[in-house]
Amino acid sequence: xxxxxQTPKFQVLKTGQSMTLQCAQDMNHNSMYWYRQDPGMGLRLxxxxxxxxxxxxxxxxxxxxxxxxxxxxxxxxxxxxxPSQTSVYFCASxxxxxxxxxxxxxxxxRLTVL
Amino acid sequence: DAKTTQPPSMDCAxxxxxxxxxxxxxxxxxxxxxxxxxxxxxxxxxxxxxxxNNETNEMASLIITEDRKSSTLILPHxxxxxxxxxxxxxxxxxxxxxxxxxxxxxxxxxx
Lengths: 114, 111
Hints:
The complex is a heterodimer. Chain A has strands spanning 4-7, 10-13, 19-25, 31-37, 43-49, 56-57, 65-68, 74-78, 87-94, 104-105, 109-113. Chain A is an all-beta fold. In chain A, the strands form two sheets. In chain A, strands 2, 4, 5, 6, 9, 10 and 11 form a seven-stranded mixed β-sheet that branches. In chain A, strands 1-3-8-7 form a four-stranded antiparallel β-sheet, with no helix packed on it. Chain A is globular and about 40 Å long. By secondary structure, chain B is mainly β. Chain B is built from no helices and nine strands. Chain B has strands spanning 9-13, 18-23, 31-38, 45-50, 55-56, 61-64, 70-75, 84-92, 105-110. Chain B has a five-stranded mixed β-sheet with strand order 1-9-8-3-4, with no helix packed on it. A four-stranded antiparallel β-sheet of chain B has the order 2-7-6-5, with no helix packed on it. In chain B, strand 3 (31-38) and strand 4 (45-50) form a beta hairpin. The radius of gyration of chain B is 13 Å and the shape is globular. Chain A binds chain B through residues 4, 31, 33, 35, 41-45, 48, 50, 56, 58-59, 88, 90, 92, 97-98, 100-108, and chain B through 32, 34, 36, 41-46, 49, 87, 89, 91, 93-94, 97-104.
């Protein structure tokens, strides 16, 4: 039982390049989330998916797209990376209902955009 | 979701109880109080949550005031591994999928 797995763990991009961050969970959770964390800051929600086939914007969605590929996988895409997107990205998942607020996080993906 | 206010930093001696306060004066009746912590640059870890009764689990205790406008997370016997940023979050458990993190309290356990 690996929990939440993110790939890649580290990535360096040039401005304008595109990339996709992958996230998979093996806990049969319905809800999945993408957060970003800038140095010295709290986490900010980018997008979330309450169930397979649905996605919704969070606090800072601009510059990102997401795909809920199936119940297990939720990917985050940067179409044209900008230096302002240099951050640590965390994927998380949770059950629905009573335990919705108990999020399980991955180890993070550290992205640098030059 | 109601806003929360936490002190930016706190110290606690190893072996003592660490008491982390959180104010949430605008909390509404259906909103829960959640606590998470983040060690170094790892992903946040869920600790505990409650609605109005005090809660305890293997990691910590959560004390919520009777008027629910504030709460305290208690780590009964702090160890060096408890050094982390602790986040207090308020949210409704149903019909709201978002969990909004603030900047939290940086707790340092001193040997």
